[in-house]
Amino acid sequence: MEEASPSLLGCSKPHLEKLTLGITRILESSPGVTEVTIIEKAPAERHMISSWEQKNNCVMPEDLRNFYLMTNGFHMTWSVKLDEHIIPLGSMAINSISKLTQLNQSSMYSLPNAPTLADLEDDTYEASEDQPEKPHFDSRNVIFELDSCNGNGKVCLVYKSGKPASAQDAEIWFLDRALYWHFLTDTFTAYYRLLITHLGLPQWQYAFTSYGISPQAKQWFSMYKPITYNTDLLTEETDSFVNKLDPSKVFKSKNKPLIPKKKGAVQPAGGQKGPSGPSTSKPSSGPGNPVRNGC
Questions:
Q1: What are residue 182's DSSP bridge partners?
Q2: Which of 49, 62, 130, 155 could form a disulfide with 147 if both were Cys (CB 3.0 to 4.6 A apart)?
Q3: Tens digits of residue pLDDT in 192-212
Q4: Where is the Knr4/Smi1-like domain (predicted)?
């Protein structure tokens, strides 16, 4: 049974500070950031890892094994406060062992002859010198979900040799919503550092794709720059415009000084002469009182 309890990181324990690589201090000092929390989880027991390996016929990579022996999963979130409204923004997550499940290779629907993931994959992609061969949904590879990315895709632990799978064949890949694969790192440790240093910003995994992050995500990237900040992520095309937010203006105080309204000029009563002369109001131009030029 997993133990989980939310914890505010402002008063975190030493092991939580090590787990987050000290990123909490950067977040808490950023403008508008609030509610930086982490869900504490007890370390996994060794027999849980052994059971997972036997069940899936895979050897867990050593760095991932050590991670689970420290905490059975990871979930850290933070929010921003805009106009008195708190908006959840950053999310960093690693599934627990019980949720480290293999991507479903059976029919996607409970219907006969329904397509499988293997039927839907694109075979036109070929490996290049700077890009390894993409994973396959069939028996050639074994794929496990590490993070659902809040519905923006899936970060996966991929064994490239099928079953039985050795730890040396494991890599970390990103599967986008269109079922295209994008290579992230060779090891879990390298991926975990990417996860932390990108602050869990929305859609940060798309920075490692050929089409990059969305314009909305670029706005958040420009405000809360990742530690591994790459200026290429915010490069704007000549025919596009991205509204860059200024934190000093977004989060400034709402207490504005009151400006007295200007009173309009009082119009004198029409047609009456004042004590100093005739009225300045113009005569009407109705049919009984025509206006003539020169009069």
A1: 174
A2: 155
A3: 999 999 999 999 999 999 889
A4: 43-186
